[in-house]
Amino acid sequence: xxxxxxxxxxGTSMDGIDAVLVTLDGETLRVEAALCHPWPEATAxxxxxxxxxxxxxxxxxxxxxxxxxxEFAAATLALLAKAxxxxxxxxxxxxxGQTVRHRPQLGFxxxxxxxxxxxxxxxxxxxxxxxxxxxxxxxxxxxLVPAFHQAIFAKxxxxxxxxxxxxIANISVLPGxxxxxxxxxxxxxxxxxxGWYRRHHPHGGDYDAGGQWADSGQLVPxxxxxxxxxPYFAAPAPKSTGREMFTLDWLDGELAGRSYAPVDVQRxxxxxxxxxxxxxxxxxxxAKKPAELFVCGGGAHNAPLLAELAALLPRWRIASxxxxxxxxxxxxxxxxxxxxxxxxTRQPGNLPAVTGASRPAVLGALYPA
Length: 369
Hints:
single chain; 369 residues; alpha/beta
């Protein structure tokens, strides 16, 4: 039976709340409406600050927990209005929340966005806390989207990779059979690019729109190789990371004692994203037709970054997930709507080969309206 779910997602870039209303009927997914709800400037600043250890964090996090829920509720109500739907039309909300810490090496992850308050404000049941059971079973708690990518995008007999270019890049490798799926975070996609841009353009927006500033710079090869020496890139999967690892403080340390034009650093950070992704993709058989790389997330709109990635991957055909029927800005929101349905139908939402968990598990917790 067809049911409607809403997926809410705000990623490491913190560039807005993706809200997606989908109809799910068996294995068929259809997007009914979608929007991006901007963060209020003060809330965005506080969320960025919470991602770095500081003073009085418990009180600050408690306040931010409620503010995130309020903004998630505003996004939900705006989405319902756009779609001409009412709360009673929605089976459940799948809320990812906002990650403020991801420490798999210490066995914990933290996403805020008071799910009980979200349920109360919207009048819709909320499924949240998707990551912690996977971590309790020894997994990384991330990435969770490969199971969704396998269900929606896989093609029997064809090698496809879905690349999400958010703050952090992650890949889902779909080899064309149900047993060989794997995926992991490859490293930074936009998080360093956004942070460096904001530092040097304090009054010029939150990110380098269209990659134009980076495209005007010159690559610094010795800096690129130094950045690519970070041990995360060579670490085996399962693995996941976040903005806690790839910070401007880390970048400042790598730049210490050297003087580069800021725009050239930005260009080199673009190359860091591209090279770290390209080096971690599966090998392609030269005798076969090119493999397919489908891109989603905010970076899917960065033409210079995609052009550089294509130059590094001549054996891959690169396209948007829109070609597969799902707009790149809708993929992660739709994934958490799908995970909410998986919870309701008691189906596993994780892939142990991806996260490293000891077994498949039904992910999430219910917060009734």
